[in-house]
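Bench log, entry 3. Co-assembly request; chain sequences pasted below exactly as received.
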Amino acid sequence: MLSITTTPAWGEFTFDAGQALLPGMVGYAKVMIAAVGLLLLMLMAGTVDRTDEERIAAGRASFDPLRSNRAEFYAFFLFSLTGLMLVAGADTLLWMFLALELTSLPTYIMVAISTQRNRSREAAVKYFFLGALGAAVFLYGFTLIYGGCGTARLNEIHDHIALHGINTLTMAGIMLSLLGLGFKIAAVPMHFYTPDVYEGAAPQVSAFLAFVPKTAGFMAILLLAATIGWTYDPGAVKGVIRASEHGTQLPEAVRVLLWVMAAMTMTVGNILAVLQSSVKRILAYSSIAHSGYMLVGVIAGPGDGSFTGSGVGAVLFYLMAYGVMNVGAFAVLAALERGRRDDGDAIEIETVDDLRGLWSSHPRMALVMLVCNLSLLGMPPLLGFFGKLPLFTSAIGAGEVPLVIVLGVNSAIAAYYYLRLAFVPMLENADRGAGAPRAAPFRSREIAGLLSAAGVIALAVFGASIMKRVEAAAKVSPTIAEIQATATP
Amino acid sequence: MILLVTILIPLLAALAVALAPETRAKSIAMLGTCVALVLGGYLALQFPWDHAGEFHLGGEKAIEWLPSLGISLSLGVDGVALLLILLTLLLGPICVAASSTAITSRRRSYYAWLLVLQAAMTGVFAARDIVVFYVCFEFTLVPMFVLISLWGSTNRKRAAVKFFLYTFTGSVLALAAIVYVAAVNAAIDPASLTSLERGLHPEAGRWSFSIDALTFAAGHLSSAEQALVMAGLMLGFAVKVPLFPFHTWLPLAHTEAPTAGSVILAGVLLKLGTYGIYRFVFAFAPMAVVEYAPLVALVCIVGILYGGLICWVQTDVKKLVAYSSVAHLGFCVLGMFALNGAGLTGSIFYMINHGLSTGALFLLIGMIYERYHTRSMKELGGLAAKMPIWSTFMVFFTMASVGLPGLNGFVSEFLCLLGAFQASSAWGSGLWGSAGAMKGATLGELGPWYALIAGVGMVIGAIYLLYMVGRIVWGKLVEPHAHHDGHDAHAPVLPKDLCTREIALLLPLAALCIGLGVYPKPVLQALEEPVRFSLRGIDDVRAARPVAATPIEAARVEVTP
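Structure output for the full assembly:
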């Protein structure tokens, strides 16, 4: 499993990079996905068939290949990661759609079989139907783009738009695609499923959901945005929209759509997270909010091309940062259990109060919770802060000051619930009578948590080389002006 | 390099404390803070005080940290920063010593966080890169949050959360303003600069967070942009100071924090705000500072009067001293926004004096709390009869805080008011025509009215502090009822009056109060150059402004050709 996960990472050196709009993104994305994928894999240990395997080990049952789900579960896990890597390299709309579906379809099944409870099945059904709706919306958008430009290849669409401008049909297609992809990244107004699904699934699968579909959605959005290009002037939206030599932003209509989505997503996510008491729901709503932060980077665009000025780079870096710190937060939930239910499932940590007293019973997990949540909050000098800083710089460089203020205020709202998550384990004593949670018998989950906490600190202190890679990965090429120069002699 | 070591030593000590056995925690912490203090002394000896306006001791070259983000670990101190670092380092061992009997549970965590806090505070003053500054500035929140919420008194959790959220919100907006200036710096076209400028500011046109580069870039801001930048920065720093409408977290945090926490909060953490204003608002937004100085001064005066009046009706001693901080820092910022030599010097001196005297007052109140488990003035009175040594110190530091001539508080408070008074030409030419020739008087934004009203605040300050001393030191002996004694069975038994340890940690503060009060010259001299450098930008703005701003000024311009 390990080798399969890591192989594609080396693939960048041997295979054609795929799409040519963000050519550097493919290699970076594969390495990042493989690295976070490894952390997630460690988290997945013992998710399915735990009861069965215990009975087999005790000699009370014999192994029955038909009853075992384990292989399928890991296969789906890898399929999904493969799909995610393929999204990064998608060079046609069709491939992009197929890759997105390859990412999503396994996750529906993973949610369903992650626990024995009906709540997981319900979550999976909800996730599936809403996911299918989202897929239908962006597929419709893709067909409209195809109809508007006469080609499904992203490079050709890019050139077509550069030469002929964006016609109404294409624009409608782009809008629908972005809206549909909003489902993958859990952006308002396509976010409704998130808390229910995260709560219904096992925590390790929720960690997977918070990283994989979100990354897929953001890479697809970045590719789409790069197809249109960040080379428009603010102003008129009537008729055919043309790029200009001095333009620095997305077409006004697209920008406004993303602007509203970003502002709404972070605000709704954060405010609803404040009201929750279940840890998984808090993390689910905060995952919505983080999508809102990253949308700011999409709006900002490549800027001057440096890491600090590039919103594209900021999104790519933040995806990695979010992946690492998020795994840590969920790993604590996965590594601890308050007991077993009759059907063999672990009784998980549900509310924030269940985390009380963790400092005395499981100091390492309390530390992971502290570090990862402070990082999610954006507390310097942790990774989350250096993820957010390029979002600030690129957006201000692109002139989006009001959006940055919204982002800042939202970070402050988020402080309220992240403080609870970070410090309740450390500061509060467990209720008398309530037994301390015990460690789940899977050491790798705990190790995944410790690794990501270490990563949150180490990547902030020694992140310089990664930032350099991201800078290269975020290069947008070629520019509209270049194409126009070559096309018009 | 030596600055980096001064920051790293408390961090290493914190690590050692976390790994060492519980009983050793305090001694390791003491060792760590003492080594840092000795290093601080060495820093002070190395520092060329004649050139205190420039930055020294940071090492030859900045250490690259995150070059893609334009962040480097560049350190360096001028006279102002070094004085504040010395204050921080001095309070380190005092806080450790003050905690030895008060903290009985989870001592390892306590001392570890205390040391981390000290490292972060030192880093704030030593940073020459604004992201490094911001990292340390923000990170002070975490240790302080833990100190308040684990070792505070009854209402500690609410206080800690309020403290964290208030300051965090403010500083995120300050970050937006900082990034705005950085974006302007990145957008500068190097070709548009003269070759001299290009040589002096190689970072122009690139993303950088070096304070020098951003100061240069701020010159490219329009006055409207500067106003926005100033608003963002002031929101961040005013919460920390705290200035009037943003002060509500302070009394709560002070009351609930453990003694050492209060000492650090009053002694150093509040200065982070004033230091931020001095260092960044003045550098990044000189036009806006000149423009809005009267407004800020107004807010300060409201804070001075409001804080003073609230103190008057307090019955909780700790809360009283906390509110007095609001009033005192109002003076400090008022002096700063007088925008002249006297005011600014006074303001920086005030930062140090307030740290010494208010820090000591919190220590004294902590000592009382350890003995009687109450801070209410209704339950305490006439302690001079029982605790003569404590009472002596209490009266002494109250006097320092009030601003008794001969003690340090007087010098800085007087300079702040003088600065505000002088920062005007309106009265100078009219009512006090002859006084207009007063040396050092500048054409400024504030005027005698500001100083006069703030002076009323000084009187109120004297009233409430003396009232407090009158209640608890003199008068009839009142002691709380015995039922408080069962409060903490494990608490070590303390002697009635102060023990040697407690006297030892108050003495250096008292000595400094007298020393700086009687002979403030070395400090004032050291501050001369930094202040002059800071005012250069302001004076340039003034020079470029139309002179005839008010009718009286216009008249004066006509009279004096």
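The CA atoms of residues 264 and 446 of chain B lie 32 Å apart. DSSP finds 22 helices and two strands in chain B.
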